[in-house]
Each structure stands twice: as structure tokens, then as C-alpha cells.
Amino acid sequence: MNPAPSSTVALEIAVTSPAGALVARDGGADRVELCVGLELGGLTPSQALVEATHETGIPAHALVRCRPGAFVYDDDELALMEREVRTVLRSGAAGVVVGALRADRTLDEDALRRFVDAARAVSARAEVTLHRAVDHAADPVATAGRLADLGLTRVLTSGGAPSAPAGAATIARMVDAAGPVQVMAGAGVRPGDVPALVGAGVAAVHLSAKRSAGTGHAGVPMGAGDRGDAHSVTDATVVAAARAALDGTA
């Protein structure tokens, strides 16, 4: 049975800058997920970016993902991310967001244990979130049921669907399976989706709350994926609307 909707459901905003963290903080977010390359699904932020975001005062959970693409990693990549876990926490992050799968699309539990151990070696209070690698797992519900034994704090999920609203029924099943591990709904979430996701029993909702900065570039591409598009910034209006939607479910 899913827990009743609660006024303690948290609001997390994905940001890529200290300015975005300030917008999230002032709009009523409880914490931010900090990354770079949001258009690639997010990558590990630099030490300086973590430090500057920490100075805004809002708890920041740093994504640790060393490259875009699939979540199956070799030994060198795992060693690098284990080191990144320690670095971002020492730089002021309140937690880390990590994940890894095996080739058969089951959770790479050995990798997760390494990440958890690295985090807690820096701070016993460090929170560890499994990112949306869970949505690429063969069975997201069964995967959620394994997380408490691995020492994770929460899991960010769309329920294995392209968006969290589309995966709400599976998210509700993940809440049941996860036990003490918090389930946070994210991917394609708009403020109007918040009540239904809270009704699924989630502990938090996650939004990128972004808008185009309106300044791209034309001419010579800067890489294979560069179309000259404007970069995105955190939208104060969307953050405030999400906060209001959450408060309305209390």
C-alpha cells in the first residue's frame, strides 16, 4: 500500500550553475541536483562548480557520471567515478547521484557498493541516490527492492517510461518495493503533474525547470552534437509553480 500524500514531499531541481541553485533556493526548492551537460542526461560537475554551488546555501547533490551513453562501465571508469564521489563530497556536496548496470541490464551491485563506501568514507551523513539508470534496468521494481541492502538513500525514476507521469503506475509499485529507500519521481515533470505523482506515494519530485537563455550561436559546430542551440537556465516561474503545486497537496 502506498503511503498517503504528505506535506513532507521534497522538491528537487536539477541545475547546472550557482545561479540556478539560487533560483531554486529562492523559489522554495529543498535541494538541487548539480551537474553539467544536462542536454546529455547530465555529467559530473567540476570541483569549482560544486564549491560555488555549496556557497549558495541550498543542499546540492552532485551527479557522478563520467561520460554520456550506456550505464555499463569498465574498471577505469568505475575507479574514476569512485574518485569523483570523494571529490564532490569534499567540495561541499551534501550527497551524490550515481548508478551502474551490468550488460544483462541488472544493477551492478558491486559498483554501487563501491560508490556508497566511498561516499560514507568522506561523510557518514552523505546521501546516495541511484539515478535513472534504474529506468534502463530490466526490472525497475525489483531493482528498487535491492537498494536498501546496498545502503542507498533514494532512487530517481520515471518508472521505466519516457516521463514520470507516463510511468506513475510503475513508480507506485517501486514505492512499495523500496521500503525505507525514498522514491523520487523525475523526467518530463511539469508543475501540473505534481499532484498525481504525490498520489503515487513518492518522497520527492524532481524537475529541471529550465527555459532557453535565448542566445545560441551559428556557424562552425563545436562538436558532433552541437546544433548552435541556446543553453538553458533555471526558470524561477516553473520552480515557484512546482512549489505551489506541492504545497497544495499538503
UniProtKB/TrEMBL annotation:
Among SUPFAM superfamilies, the record links this protein to: CutC-like
Q: Where in the cell is it found?
A: Cytoplasm
Record keywords, A-Z = Cytoplasm
Family label: Belongs to the CutC family.
- This chain belongs to the protein called PF03932 family protein CutC
